[in-house]
Amino acid sequence: MKGWKIGVSAMGGSSQFFVALLLAKYGVKPDQVSFIGVGQGPGGIAAVRTGKGLDAIAVTDPTITELENSKDIIVVVDSRSLEGTIEVYGGETISGVVYTRVDFLKQNPITVQATVTAIIRALEWIKKASIDEVMAKVPQEFWASRPELYKVMLEKSISGFQHDGRISPKATEVTFDFLCKIDPALRDAKLDLTKTYEGSFVENARATLGLK
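Given the sequence above, the corresponding structure tokens read:
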């Protein structure tokens, strides 16, 4: 991969972190490749199809699924599924979260709790729902005129949403570990990872909903 031109969603974004981790696994430094911000959706698709000289691309769905279905690319590393995420990062990682300022949380605990409870209720429903049932709940403008593409994308990524909403100590360790591998400024950092998230709202939500 040394010398490759690699398209990413945006410079400094999660897709670049993803590639940097893969490079580190194989002893390649980030400055030994060229990162190019290509955007998502039409931008990412055009970057591949119009021949911008890319050797690889790392973006998210629906861009990847569309390029994969049209055989413009071959997916060699896939973190859309839970299994793929564990293979790449060495365990579950923390990505999609609810975050806010500490002062807002303290001043608006009822609002925060209501938001978290709604999310936990949705996650529990997703565990039991079919792909078609999930699609029926998603506003049509989200998948526009491409329902089949959205369905394929959802099938590949649904396992990442079949979750209880809890952040585990192991997930924080895995997340911090890969960040340390790609960011030299963090390598000597000493953090109490238990203080980097607040789990009480999730536990309150699960108790309110009668869940273990």
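The longest strand covers residues 5-8. Try to locate this feature in the token string yourself.
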